[in-house]
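Data deposition worksheet. Section B asks for the primary sequence of the deposited chain exactly as it was used as input, without tags or linkers unless they were present during the calculation. Section C holds the resulting structure in token form. Section D is free text for depositor observations; keep each observation to a single sentence. Incomplete worksheets are returned to the depositor.
Section A, Depositor: J.P.
Section B:
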Amino acid sequence: MSDVITNKNILIRVLKNPMLMSDLSVRDWNELLREAKISNLAGRLSADAQDIGIKQELPAKVQNMFKSFDYQSRSSRRMITWEMNRVKRALNGTEDKVILLKGAAYIAKNLKCTRGRVSVDLDILIKKNRIDFAEEKFLAAGWQHHVENDYDQKFYREYSHELPPLIHPDRQISIDVHHSILPVTSRVYPDMNKLIDDAVPCIEGFYTFSDVDIILHSVVHLFQDGEVRSSLRNLLEQHDMFEEFGKNPDFWQKLVPRAIELGFTRALYYALRYSKMILGTDIPDHVFDAIKPYGPNIVVRSLMDWMVPGVMSPTLGATGLSRWLSMNGLYIRSHWLRMPPPLLAKHLSIKFMRKIRGEA
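Section C:
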């Protein structure tokens, strides 16, 4: 299946071998850029071309587009960095660990996966018993609730793993204040004290998870709490982190035991499997051997092998009815893992009725 995927999707071929950009036809460029923009990876193509020194050899129109992508990426990084500064100021004086998540953590650690990346919000995490304190500080500093519907407010506060999103009217950057990395209703729920206790200082005023916990957060976000479809960028970030963190042998020794400790083995199994299958990630054999017992049975594995590669990218694999079934199957799976059946039925019913009535 890996070879079929590689040969079929031009974006994946170029991500795996950026030198291919030197010999693309006009038709290839149209397909590549369309796919890259839909997948939020256009900036990554520009960064890859710059890294291997072929940017000036590309067609003039492509170079101009790449300049625009570079500007968007740099602008996004500046805005997120400034928002981090504002968050630090709002929480000035607290002794709590304020942990950067996702894109903000990648920026703070200057990881490879930030090259060409565009972030639209800032994610942070603090202990649950301090979440009300943080909310008061942010509201006092000018942030406002982005979600005003009473049901959504209640749902966030009772069942989610974060406050309702906050947005500052002057900067229009949303901040998501987490107390966990998975909803409290999730079938898998980690001991957050373990992740917070092992968090390490990064830039002044902030922490990040350890390298192992950063990648585990990413994989559970995609394969436990996410829908998987159109998430090639997330898988590429995991590919980058596996390769970057994997230069330290201790990372591979700690990865599976930590996943077992936190209950993230199934999500890690899928991340390792599809990162290697789709992007060719170099994963040590002993890591696959260690995670294999925690994988699904052959029926579930075959079903996931059919669904996941087919919807990871907008034009990858499945089409027509096959794609529709894959997308909806993974959508149902994500909600099934996220909350118990009675709550799920109630939640989807309310969402459906609001949609019928034309409510946001």
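Section D:
The chain has 17 helices and seven strands.
Residues 2-356 form one domain.
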